[in-house]
Amino acid sequence: MNDHTAEAEEESLKLVYDIREALCSTLTALEGKPNPGYSFTYIYFLAGYLNRAADGFVLLRTNGRIDSSKLLIRPAIEAMFRLTAVLLKPDLFYRVAYGEHEEDLKLLRQASRHASTKFDENALVKQWSEFSAKYKAEFPQSSASCNRLSLEEAAINANMSGYYDAYYRMYCRYQHVALRAVGRTLDELTDAQDNRAIALCIFAALESLTALGAPSPSNFDSLRDRLKPPSTEPTAA
Length: 237
Description:
By secondary structure, the chain is mainly alpha-helical. It folds into two domains: 6-90 and 160-227; 92-144. 70% of the residues lie in helices and 0% in strands. It contains twelve helices and no strands. The protein has helices at residues 6-30, 38-62, 66-70, 73-88, 92-112, 121-138, 151-157, 161-175, 179-182, 187-190, 194-211, 220-227. The radius of gyration is 19 Å and the shape is globular. The relative contact order is 0.18. The mean pLDDT is 90.
């Protein structure tokens, strides 16, 4: 892995494992318990998604599938941006839901043209109307804006625009099949950052759940200390 030593890899991967273990325990503790509203449910689901992504990442990494593990990092960072943005500004969840609804409509319209089963668009529109009414009743002070929340906006609202401009753009190149990524020359920059990138994402999930009232693991502070970046690493703006 270029200049990334085996010792550094083992240490940083151990951090991923330890944070994921804490996140998994927190998610288990919340199973079946009532939650305060839609934004909490969204954060809980995203935390579960990140838990599964980290599980796959660790499995690939420990079996020497470094190249494959990199493909899981970009979606994990996207989940971190959205999760943190909604935690800090719960009103943003309505914009997230609206954007998802619009994308669902486009997807299902296209899919129905190539499928034998006709898509019931009216049912999906009705479902959205019911959700919108319930949301506005539960959060009457919310602006409930029908304005999609872009990922960059999510990063800004999560106070992570610096991370968006640096590491997110770098890991996007793997999914975009950029020349540096497919030629493996980008690995020189990413090998030493992969584990910490995933660790940061799942710690954000753990931190968000504890901020919403979930039980904090006994090693929470030590995990946060181990996650602190080197002084030379760009931080979120």
